[in-house]
Amino acid sequence: MNARTQPDDSWILGRILSAMAIGLALGGCTDTNLYSPTLARQEANRIALTGEVCTEDPVTASFPVRVVLLVDVSSGPLFSDFDPGGTRIEILRNFIQSALNDSETEIAIVTYSGRARKLAPSEGNFTRNPGELLNAINAISLAEPCLGIDQCRDYREGLRTSGALIEGDMASLPAGLRVLTQYVVVMVNAGPQQPTALESDCCQEDDIECINNNQNPSLGCEALLGPTQVTQLRDMVTDGGGAGLRLHIVHLGADPDVNVNQQVQDVMEGMAFAGGGVYQRYDAAGGLSDAVFDVLSLRTLLTAKLIFAANLNAIPGPDGPQLDSDADGLSDEEEERWGTSAGNRDTDGDGITDLVEVLTGFDPLLIDLPTACATIIPYLDADLDGLTDCDESLLGTEPTLVDGDGDGMPDILEVTTSTDYLNKDTEADTDSDGVSNGDELRQHSDPRSTDSRAHLTYGYRYEFEDEGILRQLVASKLIQITGVDVKAINQGTTPGVGTMSYDAGAKALQWLDANDGATPGPWVKVGAGGTFELPSSSYAAIQGDDGRMIEVDVNVADLPSASQSESLRVVYRDRQCIKYMIRNVQLMGTRELDDGTRAGSNSVIVYFAQAPDGKLDVPGPFRMAQVPIIFNPPAAREPADAILLIKDDEFVRPQITAVTYAAP
Asked: What is the phi/psi pair of residue 71, to 5°?
């Protein structure tokens, strides 16, 4: 730093040391704060935020999905007697072509007999190359020989190979994309594991006596090892930052011994249960159809983790919020002491936020070019959390995750309030005031001071109603029939692929439900624009919501000039929805920013943290809603409403791709 007058080093050290306090886990949710009974309300500077927010459904939100086809190619009855015509091969081929219709799906193919090997892709972990995948399917039609006696079918080795592919793929993804990526293993198995597990395989590793005395094959141990391996695979995905894994099993009862088939079923059912997937058994190839592999809609659900709000222009302090006009984490008063601009987050224009320069020892008034930011696009904020990627590189946080340590608190808030942004400390109580750090952040109070009066006067107050998992029918977006949006779908409508038709001459729409054969419903004239109900042919008014009908909004100006027919996929969407009310959010009279942003602008954010696979202690995707508010003291407020409604579709999630930010 240069020699001009600046705050003393003890202030800097206090900010840095406080920011690195270490604790554990996530604090609870209470609503105990009350407005102060002694202080008069002199300004109309408080608002409440209300609405409903739902977790994202991985299918309808088009989260990335990686599929491992794990296929038994052991020589024997599967090829000679059960399916000599290769029915399963054709069905697998159809599955690949169908799965690749989803642009977010990638596939790998692994086979196993006496050994396991990856057939596709030839390079990398997963691929969307249909030629490479279909060539691999053709190779599955050829049986592979045994390695020796009772060494014909090692599906546990196949699972290990699948796990290695998944682990490699996860390592290649930026963390913000990894938390969205779902893994699916579809296992096609035709017989028992060989060699069968020994009793000693289920002994504790250090129990030498158990190991020495149990060297016989054991079906009981085998029934334990399979599910255990699957559980370990699922834990590897979630603990490694993935969105989850499901294992589905298609059991081909090819063994001529019905008792063997039943033994295999017992093990396979346990494995599918451990994998959160579906078990199916077929005792004849004639029972196989494309529906067997219709399992990709079964994904790991996201659950609600935390909802809270923050005004980034109000830094929590011991005596109430401190004004931070540019929301850079330094109060306007601190900026005056440093000589930085209270109207510019990056006074010297070097791509590093003023607060981060102070915390990391750089000069906020001199352009710095740290090596850690040499390859980073200036001012890029991949995760939209308010910290630039350069900031995050200097701080050691993850630039593609809003909450890098998984405690539910965005990094930007932890940096600003000097809690530990690298390790979970929400249950710690840094200031020993009886309120955990996590609750202090949610209430927007200062975790560094024993501010009981500030808690009562300024603390945010929360009310929640958990509506549970709501299942709704939703439709894909129409591409060719422009100007038509599906607004609602009757619960009686059939999930699957229906058909929407448009007659340009008559300006009319027609709907064919997926289960109504070739007979569509009546034409409905939509030339006037607005909202219209489109019944399918089987609909009758007496059926009400149980009938097959959809509701559409029509914008006449955008309707196509020519008649069109288009497939429309209807699927179930499963989301956990929470109704909320957040009270006592204080607004600040900010100054006009250097870029011309109006005086009084407040950056109020509602954060919604989601948990992958129900795990609350790992990072997950965030949805965020920014509430634009102008407040000029004492009472000028835009919008003027005291309670502001935030709709679910106002929440956005950062769009991270593999090329947005390369994994290290």
From this structure: -120, 130
Does 27 have pLDDT greater than 70? Answer: no
Strand partners for 652: 624
pLDDT of residue 148: 86
Q: What is the pLDDT of residue 660?
A: 53
Q: What is the CA radius of gyration of the chain?
A: 30
Tell me, yes or no, whether 182 and 161 share the same domain: yes
What CATH number is associated with residue 241? 3.40.50.410
Helix (H) / strand (E) element for 19: namely helix 9-19
**Mean pLDDT taken over the chain:** 89
Answer yes or no: are the C-beta atoms of 483 and 595 closer than 8 Å. Answer: no
Q: Which two tokens stand for residue 8?
A: 């003393």
More confidently predicted of 633 and 35: 633
Sheet holding 182-189, edge to edge: 116-120, 105-112, 65-72, 182-189, 244-252, 279-282
- pTM attached to this predicted model: 0.82
- Segment 81-128, tens digit of pLDDT: 999 999 999 999 999 998 998 889 999 999 999 999 999 999 999 999
Looking at per-residue pLDDT, the higher value among 291 and 659 belongs to: 291
Q: CA 2 to CA 456: how far, in whole Å?
A: 42
Contact 593, 344 (CB under 8 A): yes
What dihedral do alpha carbons 622, 468, 50, 572 form, nearest 10°? 70
In DSSP terms, which residues pair with 472 in a beta bridge? Answer: 573
Residue that terminates a domain, selected from 259, 284, 300: 300
d(CA 69, CA 136): 11
The helices-and-strands tally (H runs, E runs) of the chain is 15, 22
Question: 82: domain range?
Answer: 65-300
Q: Provide the number of structural domains found in the chain.
A: 3
CA 6 – CA 4 distance, rounded (Å): 6
Bridge partners for 91 per DSSP: none
| Domain co-membership, 70 together with 24 | no
The answer on 336 and 273 residing in a single domain is: no
Distance from C-alpha of 56 to C-alpha of 52, rounded to nearest angstrom: 13
Cα separation, 17 vs 359, whole angstroms: 10
